[in-house]
Amino acid sequence: xxxxxxxxxxxxxxxxxxxxxxxxxxxxxxxxxxxxxxxxxxxxxxxxxxxxxxxxxxxxxxxxxxxxxxxxxxxxxxxxxxxxxxxxxxxxxxxxxxxxxxxxxxxxxxxxxxxxxxxxxxxxxxx
Length: 127
Description:
Elements: E1 2-4, H1 8-21, E2 28-30, H2 33-43, E3 47-50, H3 59-69, E4 74-79, H4 84-93, E5 97-100, H5 104-117
Parallel strand pairs: 1-2, 1-3, 3-4, 4-5
Helix pairs in contact: 2-3, 3-4
């Protein structure tokens, strides 16, 4: 799993939450888009938790790049933005799901479970 989040506290919180739910998982972290791409090239994570607004990249655009590099990787957007346009653009970019940060503790683990159980899409993006 790879957490892509530029806020240190949120990244650490997500890591601790995931580590408690998946104690044997290898959880990587990236603080920006460049680190995320490097991690995806080297590690080919099964799952990426992606923030929309990063210091050096747009998480939606980065999702397209990650899905091009690793089509089998499931991307779950985790963002403070709740407007439907973000959800629609994320799905069009190939994201498996969109979870707002205020719903992380209710929705993230069930969403991860579904993403890990779902067969990878051949073409990560909608046409």
